[in-house]
Amino acid sequence: MAIQDFRNFPFARPRVEGCGRFLGHRTYWKLYAIENCMRVILHSILVAQIGPDWWDTSVDPATRKAIDSLKQSYKKGIHTLPGSHDIYYVYLSDLTKIMTTTRNLIVKVIADVDTWIVKMEGVRIPRNLVGHMNFPNTADRSRIDSLHNEVTTLMQKLEKEPELKIRIP
Questions:
Q1: Is 0.85 surpassed by the pTM of this model?
Q2: In 3D, which of 101, 153, 102, 99 has the Cα closest to residue 124?
Q3: Could you tell me the residue range of the domain that residue 149 belongs to?
């Protein structure tokens, strides 16, 4: 039996849990991989092109200010921090903005960077659905599956590039 959105049926807690398990097993982990691989890719390329302080010179002041404010919400010793670099505080839409802003540098490594920006924007809404614990339809899950496969292929290609060192932010 295929898992279906629990909201289309009379309430049953096991159905809610089944949807959660399905999304975690089928979709969420792919979004996790997409976002984190893109963070690593952008960071690696921009460190190579600009240097370790690429964030301060490439990310618009409004985004940096929003991230600084968000970081204040995390209480040291109480909350788990998203990561040691500010890039871990941004959303998928912010990653596409960074790609757009630094396109002239990224295109040196990823020739079809504009296509990648469009692909990432194509999963922004489905990602938000899943991130806010909602159930995406088949088409949205397919978009996520496709982008996951393509990001995996891109990452494998970049890992073989002798001029690019893959760096975890």
A1: yes
A2: 99
A3: 16-159
